[in-house]
Write a structure and sequence with these properties.
Shape: globular
Number of helices: 2
Distance between the termini: 54 Å
Number of strands: 40
Helix content: under 10%
Oligomer: single chain
Strand content: 35-45%
Structural class: mainly beta
Length: 620
């Protein structure tokens, strides 16, 4: 039962936490779901949001938000072929736009007469992909019925709604695949979370192929979905780039993009290929056309005598592994002369030159030199494989794992985890550690920081994460939503917590629902776009979250601006601290594409050149 009416919060309440907890903007409540407060959607009078039926919201550079949810009210049904309760919206309070709704025409009315409909599962007729672009363009995907639509054959499609202008159909089930002799896409051409779409509507996508010239040896491909005509990037059975006599099979995972820069991986096929040397990692960065292999399992690491890429989990990638200048960042398992004390490293590759950014066994300032006996003798082991994030300008935020100096694992209760950052100048520092006090909350300490924080980073130098915490005296546990940058340090944005045994009474902040909340959710590792930025934490510092008092069925979507309003020195495309000829070369190389887009208008053009020339010299 509700204890406080959410209507008391209002549709657009600006409310701030205590001054000690907030060094940024103020929280703005964008929407509430309590089963009673009007949703404020145009053309759907009286509709209310159904509690606990929102997907993760996303946010663009201009602060506008998009999300999928379910509505209820007069004339709204959630069952069968007439279900019309599912909507995908974008905007801000008082200015929402409904981009898609089940039992309504698909975007742009193409295919003509088709509507979103999925009788067997109406709540999935519009896919909850949470994919947006840097400037707020939205990917729309789902299931259709209508003229010429056959269930299970061509009833799925994906559209792109750009930040301005009309939507375009990107792909439909059974479309013909470019670069083949009549091969077709699979029946299901809906997208999932994690697809990287850039601001001009391009996204690398793995497809299984059927029909036409398809045989077992070529029945899969990676294509670049894009308005107008798609591009075949790699088909199973294609010649391996730079390795004569061998072919390659693309992986269905690990597709990354920043503007026109793309990363993918695959498996070699040919004589002498085993599981010890079959994994290859490819990019279009640094080549005029096609792809190049920049790393191969079992090969020597260029520039590091005696080191190889080990044959077990050779490379793994964080949330945004390719920078604006084309530098690729990854975690490598090392073989050859590496030992158990130093066989993991965070590395980068730029035009064939490899660098080690962090390595197992390294000292971490603030930990290795700590006066605390709990941290004496501890050294870096590795980052969490998914809990790390590189910004386009070279800031690397990560969940770090510690080990004893002899290589042995740290045994509880001694803390083994921390949040760290490596700045573009190479400086590494610890931000907080497991068991540290939570800033702004007396008696609270951090819990596990490994794989649990949904760490995000923005190009304005800020990072945000959601850290588990507890208070033994109060018998409470929960999460602290925190921000960090050089100017403001580590600070608390919000507290979500609960007390005692199940059903766990909420005890967190009342900012979001008017009652104590027990849940604040970040979008996590799938919240990344094809422009090299984040979708839940924008490149210029807009943060959007879901918050809830689940005990009383009260839910809210809120946003806040973190840190500086501007991305520092956006013209410094290679993050070396100076805008110079190297940055000019990067702009000219990207001319007509979407990266490096210095003014975020979707295209590299004369306007970006003007930004660069105005900023020429040392970054201020």
């Amino acid at each position: 039962m509700r204890t406080v009416k959410c209507t008391a919060v209002g549709l657009f309440l600006s409310a701030s936490l205590t001054s000690a907890a907030l060094a940024d903007g103020t929280w703005e409540i964008l929407s509430v779901a309590d089963g009673a407060t009007p949703a404020g959607l145009p053309g759907i009078d009286g509709a209310v949001w159904v509690p606990n039926q929102w997907n993760n919201p996303t946010i663009g550079l201009d602060g506008t938000v998009s999300f999928r949810g379910q509505i209820a009210g007069a004339g709204i049904t959630n069952t069968g072929a007439t279900a019309n309760h599912l909507v995908l919206v974008k905007g801000l309070p008082g200015n929402w736009t409904v981009l898609a709704r089940n039992n309504s025409l698909v975007p742009g009315d193409f295919p003509s007469g088709a509507i979103f409909s999925r009788t067997a599962s109406p709540s999935n007729s519009i896919v909850s992909a949470n994919n947006t672009t840097d400037d707020g363009g939205v990917i729309i995907s789902g299931y259709m019925t209508g003229p010429g639509i056959t269930t299970g054959t061509n009833d799925t499609a994906t559209w792109f709604q750009p930040a301005s202008g009309a939507p375009v159909l990107l792909a439909q089930g059974r479309d013909f695949c470019p670069g083949t002799a009549g091969a077709q896409y699979p029946a299901n051409m809906s997208v999932s979370s994690g697809v990287r779409m850039n601001s001009v509507g391009q996204a690398p996508f793995y497809v299984a192929l059927t029909g036409g010239d398809t045989v077992t040896a070529n029945n899969a491909a990676v294509v670049l979905l894009r308005p107008g005509d798609d591009q075949l990037l790699l088909r199973k059975g294609d010649a391996a780039p730079g390795i004569p006599g061998y072919t390659v099979t693309p992986d269905s995972f690990g597709l990354f993009q920043n503007g026109t820069k793309i990363l993918l991986s695959g498996k070699l096929v040919g004589a002498g290929i085993t599981t010890a040397n079959d994994s290859v990692y490819m990019t279009n960065v640094g080549v005029a056309s096609g792809l190049r292999i920049y790393a191969r399992e079992g090969d020597p690491v260029p520039g590091f005598k005696g080191l190889t890429f080990a044959n077990t989990s050779s490379l793994s990638f964080g949330q945004r592994p390719v920078a604006s200048d084309g530098t690729i960042t990854f975690i490598a398992t090392l073989g050859g002369s590496a030992t158990t004390l130093n066989n993991t490293a965070v590395m980068s590759e730029s035009n064939g030159v490899f660098s080690i950014l962090l390595r197992k066994g390294d000292a971490i300032p603030g930990i290795t030199d700590s006066a605390s006996p709990d941290f004496n003798g501890k050294v870096f082991s590795s980052p969490n494989s998914t809990g790390n994030c590189m910004t386009r300008n070279g800031l690397y935020a990560f969940e770090g794992i510690l080990m004893n100096a002899d290589g042995s694992a740290i045994v509880s209760p001694s803390p083994a985890q921390f949040i760290g950052v490596r700045k573009p100048d190479g400086t590494v520092r610890s931000i907080c550690r497991q068991t540290d006090p939570v800033p702004g909350l007396d008696g609270w300490v951090f819990g596990s920081l490994n794989g649990a924080t949904s760490i995000c980073a923005s190009d304005n130098g800020a990072i945000v994460f959601n850290a588990p915490m507890s208070n033994a005296t109060l018998n409470e546990s929960g999460n602290a939503l925190l921000a960090w940058d050089e100017a403001g340090g580590l600070r608390l944005l919000a507290k979500s917590s609960s007390q005692g045994a199940s059903p766990f009474a909420p005890t967190g902040d009342t900012t979001f629902t008017g009652t104590p909340c027990n849940q604040v959710t970040l979008i996590g590792s799938t919240g990344n776009n094809g422009d090299g930025g984040g979708t839940g934490f924008s490149s210029n510092g807009w943060l959007v979250v879901r918050a809830a008092d689940t005990a009383n069925g009260l839910y809210a979507i809120a946003r806040i601006k973190i840190g500086s309003d501007a991305i520092p020195c956006p013209a410094d495309t290679n993050a070396d601290g100076t805008v110079n000829a190297a940055d000019l070369a990067g702009v000219l190389a990207g001319w007509g594409t979407s990266s490096p887009d210095l003014n975020a208008d979707g295209t590299v053009n004369a306007a970006d050149l003007a930004v660069l020339l105005t900023a020429w010299g040392d970054c201020q």
